[in-house]
Amino acid sequence: MPTRRGDRGKRRRDALADAILRRLDDIDQQWLDRVAASVQRDDVTPSELRDAMPAYLSRLAGGLRRADTAQAGGTSSWKEVAREHAETRVRLGFDIDQLVEEFIVLRQVIFRVLVEDGVLVDVDQASSIAELIEGAIAAAVKSYVESRDFELRKQSAENIGFLTHELRNPLTTAMLGATRLRQTLVLSPEQTRMFDLVERNQRRLAELIDGVLLVERNAHAMRPKRESVALSALIDEPIAAAKVNAEAKGIHLETHFDPDLVVQVDPELATSAFENVVMNAIKYTDEGDVHVDVEDGPSEVIVHVRDSCAGLSPEELRTIFEPFRRGHHGKAGSGLGLAIARRALESQGGSIHAESGGGHGCHFWLTLPKPRS
Questions:
Q1: What is the pLDDT of residues 118-139, one digit of tens each?
Q2: Could you please report the per-residue DSSP string of 159-216?
């Protein structure tokens, strides 16, 4: 049963919510006038500055009614519109200081308007307003950093895409030339070996160019669409494909998991990450077993993949998730699978880790967030 103090806090939050809705237009306009005066940029329109603020104020009032604390209300309300607002601020060239300043101004405006309205009458309510804005600042800054990093990766990918396109054209010409020469000339054994070397390195260069494009495309395209999905829908198909590869190598693949476990992920990205890890385990295990086990944690599902490979050194473990970095197994490949898996998981709140005894076997584990209850 709610305490008397809890009832009083609820009434105060309701009063704040009512006043914010009643004076929403005043708050919005006063805030916009002050921010525009601070920015002083002719290339930024009032609508761009205002952006999601009216929607935030409306949702904020609803959040205050539902939340246990003002800060929780501010954070939950702002999360719904923070990404759009952050993307606008990144596009306009705002830095984080300017973003935070917006919310300091908003706090001051709300404070002034609610005092005028006779709602804000004591220190406790002033503290509630401060908590409310602190929650919004935290959510906005997080979204701003994510959006800024996304734009930087996108720009980098575009630059690299242009460069690799320019490299691909002369490489394609060189490959065609080498093929024509091989077909038209009578080659000695030594010349044949030289042509083999040239063509092998041309193919390797083409693979590297394709790999760079793949990594950069994934880096800026990974905007996950998270949904609740059963674990079986993510890993059944990759496991079926892995079993075919394992049987071809004489390796035993064993799995233990509850197919009905539910995670909150982007199905395509999560499946890609798991597939990269389990296929990697099959690839680098020449004999023995690969085990897939799933642990059901309080807030996440942990997928363990253990293999019988030759193991990894501490230095290899430090770099194994970086693009084009591979363990020293002498196997063919570009070293992109684990890098892509890491980006796919981290983009949706998951993670990937690895450990090895050094001389035998590796253990990779992926964490996938569960739906919030």
A1: 876 667 667 767 776 777 777 7
A2: HHHHHHHHHHHHHHHHHHHHHHHHHHS---HHHHHHHHHHHHHHHHHHHHHHHHHHHH
